[in-house]
Each structure stands twice: as structure tokens, then as C-alpha cells.
Fold this sequence. Notes:
Elements: E1 4-13, H1 21-25, H2 34-40, H3 45-58, H4 63-72, H5 75-86, E2 88-94, E3 104-105, H6 107-113, E4 117-123, H7 124-134, H8 138-158, E5 163-168, H9 182-199, H10 206-222, E6 226-228, H11 252-256, E7 265-267, H12 274-283, E8 287-289, H13 294-297, H14 302-312, E9 324-326, H15 329-351, H16 360-376
Parallel strand pairs: 1-2, 1-9, 2-4, 4-5, 5-6, 6-7, 7-8
Antiparallel strand pairs: 1-3
Amino acid sequence: MIEMVDNQAQCLLLDYRNCSLVDFAEPYCENRAPEMLSRHIPLSLFYQCMIRKLLARFRCTDLDDYLKTRAMQSQSDHLGGLFADAGIGTVLIDDSVTNSSEELLSASQLAQLTNLKINRVLAIEPVLERLFVANDTFDQALRNLERTFDGAIADSAQSNLKVVALKTSLANGGLALEASTVASARTAYHPARKEVLESNKLGRTAAYNYMLAQVLELAIKRGLPVQIRASGDQQATLVDVNNGNNNPLAFQPVLRAQRYADLKVVFLNSYPFVREAAYLASVYPGVFFDLSLANSLLAPDLTRLYYEALSAAPYSKLLAGTGGNSQPESFWYGAVCLRRGLSEALKELTEKGYLLKAQMEEVERAVLRSNAINLYDLH
């Protein structure tokens, strides 16, 4: 089994073993409504398949039995077993989630509990929020921006966690990033700062747009790829399909700008815009993408999605990500489904003459491991 680099993951719950059937279903639905989690998600085909695989793997009679079984295991034994079974060796984790009412397992704690190689993805918006709070004026914030981000990276290194990428939600405003002048950003700064002070939330303003542009340039200087999660919700969310701006094609003005010629970006959770993300990856040297949560939530359709991705994009541009969060089984099932979908897509491409049989392992290794190692400098 090729050891996988999980390019996209969030935190586990600290006490994930103490959960109800509804809690267990949370990673597998965009809508946290109790009726969806208790009544409808258990009737989803991908979810039922996951439960059957879990019960067979742990020799349990039903989900209640499984939850009792894992509750009796130590966290290290349970987590180690799941990640080893899924063939996950390295995880890139964003542990900046602040909108959860429950205590979360940090990246450092996960590293201590497992044999995983853990690297941190530094979320841009929380750092910008701290920057806005700490600086009364736009000019002060602009002067301190680079120092603030470098400080966050250094703090992570002191915790033995290397920051290998930055990550942005684009302040939940979609992928069409408007250019802002210094004058407009300066004018917008005080209202934007007031919003952060009152709501702890950074909105999509001219001040934000200008600062983000500076961060993208800083990412280039520091050699850090920027992951883009257009939906913005740092909990498990595929994409707000009603917002056309979440189409990766809307980000093209940034990709075309000369100032960002050396920027490397990763479009996360590309569904339902797999074809568009793959197209951009086929045109721009610095564009990469993954399917993340689709690996679990669209498991029955994964072969087609990977076939579509590999039909349009060079296989050097496709990354593996589980979108795992909250419950460790979401990492496990995402990886299991990813491997199956990718393998079946490669077989189809081989049968149709687009891929040599001798190349199959090379492509599989690239997607599961090598591409991420090269992009994030994980050597």
C-alpha cells in the first residue's frame, strides 16, 4: 500500500469517543440540522457503506456496538489503528477552527497520540483578525502584517509543527477577489476593525482584499502554497453551490496577474467544479486541486470524478485529501474511498488506452503521495 499524504484535514473532537449516533454523523452532512443527522444521513448509501466496512473491520454487530468498542480503546490505539489501516502516514491539518462549541484535539496532540507526521496549515483569516485587533490604523496593520505572519509561523515551529501552507476562506465571499487600492482599503479599515472587535469575524471588505493581496505576495516570498477553500466554513462543507463565485474560474484574474506569477494555489473540495479546477490546473503552472470531502460524501460516484479530473489535468496536479474532521472515521473512510475511486479510474483509463498499465502505480503514487511531498516540501 502506498503511504498517503492527507493534504486537507481539520481537527478531531478532543473527546470524540464520547459521542451519540447523531454526533458520529456530523462529518458527513453539510447541514447540521438534527433531523438530517438522525433520520436522513443514516439512509445515505455512502454512509451505510461506511458503517458496514467499519463493522466488518472491527467485528461489531451494529454502530452502537462499534461506538462502545472504540470507547474502551485508548485514543492512541484506536487512532493508530484507523490511520494505519487507511495507509495515511502524513496529515496536513488546519487546527485553527474557532466556530466550534466543543473542545478540539490540536495538531500537537494528534501528533503525540499517533505515529503520523503532522504538518500545520496556517489559516490566514484568524491571523488577519488578530492583526486588525492589535492595530488601531490601517498603516500600522500594514507595517506589522509580515511580522505577524512570520511570528505565527515561528510559534508553530516552536511547537515542533512546521507550517507548510497557508489557507484562506476568502472571508466567505467567493472566489472573485476584487482588487482594492490603498485609499479604499484605508477608508474601509476602521469599519472592518470594528466588525472584528464586535463579532470576532473578518468580513469581505476593501481592507481585507488589500491585506489578502499582501499575504499572497508574502506566501510567494516564503515559498508557501496557499490552499483555497471557497465555501469558507472551516467545518466540513463541500461548497455553497448557489454562489457562482465559488467556481474556481472566478479566481482567474489573480492567476493571470504578473505579481502572482509564482503563486502556488490548491483548490480544496473541488466538487461540483472538478472539471473547472482541472482545467485551471492544466493551464497555470501553480494551480493544484483535490476532491477532499467528495471522497466520502460522493463515494459511489468517485470513479467518474477521478476519471474526469485525470482526463483534463496532468496527474502531477491532483492531490489526495480526506477532508477528515471531528471523528477519525472520516479520515479513514475518505482514504479508503479515495484509493478505490482512483484505482478504478486508472483501470478505466488503461482499458481505453490513455494510460499504460506500467504507469498505473506511478500515477497512483503521484496523486497519493509524491505530488504533495513536492508541493509542500515534505522531503
